[in-house]
Amino acid sequence: MDLATQPVTEKNRDAYYWRLLATAASFALFGLGGLCLRLLVFPLLACLPGDALVHRRRARQTVSRLFWFFVRFMARTGVLTYDIQGAERLGRPGQMIIANHPSLIDVVFLIGLVRQANCVVKKSLWENPFTRGPLRRTEYISNDGSMDMLDAAAESLHNGQTLIIFPEGTRTQPGQAPAFHRGAASIALRGAKIVTPVIIKVNPTTLTKAEPWYRIPRRRVHFSFRVGADIDPQTFAAQGPAPQASRKLNDYLHDYFIKELAEDERFEQP
């Protein structure tokens, strides 16, 4: 798998209108792809033999491959460049992947990288006609904040799935540090064999919250993904009752990401 493209050069900064056109084409492709999955691909896959687990694996494999195709399309058309360090350590049974969330397409990258991953996704995506079909077929988990969501996420980890989660619950505000909710730490303590942080940096920022797709930066965007060292959640589980352990793990993860991101970024502390 090709995990890196060429770094940004001065020449790349000039193709603003081409990148705007390519960005529009990328969003159109994503929307049409979602409809095709719902109306054509998944109905055909449902006709193939196999039990519920086999059908789920086919669905996740299909979405993962198409997401990676979408990433490569954006890279080939000049919308973005990227580099990924440590991807070979993603996708282990019972692994919980925790990432910050600076851009709309972070989840596309991670699901594209991890072929059979489960993922906690925004509740609103289940109501979107372009995404609700694939979400149901892949059995991703709706982030509705309920105890059922926490139970489903922990159970998926107990069953040996890899789970991707963004503890912020929404995209990071540009110029501010990420703020983590404790739900991810609670899930990790209840079900994860190992927690693996993924630090995501986007330069310049793009597709942040409430930012329309057509407001592209003056130069090509570069995405950087770095897989950090594994964290054993049981180290925190032994430090007290569940609420206290959850708070300590959440604080540790928050401080960890703040430190890693601050290496070459400045944040306005809340």
Structural summary, described in words:
By secondary structure, the chain is an alpha/beta fold. 43% of the residues lie in helices and 14% in strands. It contains 8 helices and 7 strands; from the N terminus they run H-H-E-E-H-E-H-E-H-E-H-E-E-H-H. It has a 7-stranded mixed sheet with strand order 1-7-6-2-5-3-4, with helices on both faces. The chain is globular, with a radius of gyration of 19 Å. Residues 8-12 and 266-270 have low confidence and may be disordered. Pathway: Lipid metabolism.
Query: By helix and strand content, what is the structural category?
Result: alpha/beta
Low-confidence stretches at least 5 residues in length (pLDDT < 50)? 8-12, 266-270
What portion of the residues fall into strands of 2 or more residues? 5-15%
What is the radius of gyration? 19 Å
Count all strands and give the number: 7
**Terminal Cα span:** 39 Å
Main sheet: strands, sense, barrel: 7 strands, mixed
Helix-strand sequence: HHEEHEHEHEHEEHH
Q: How would the global form be characterised?
A: globular
Brief overview:
The protein has 270 residues and is an alpha/beta fold. Helix content is 43%, strand content 14%. The protein has one domain (10-261).
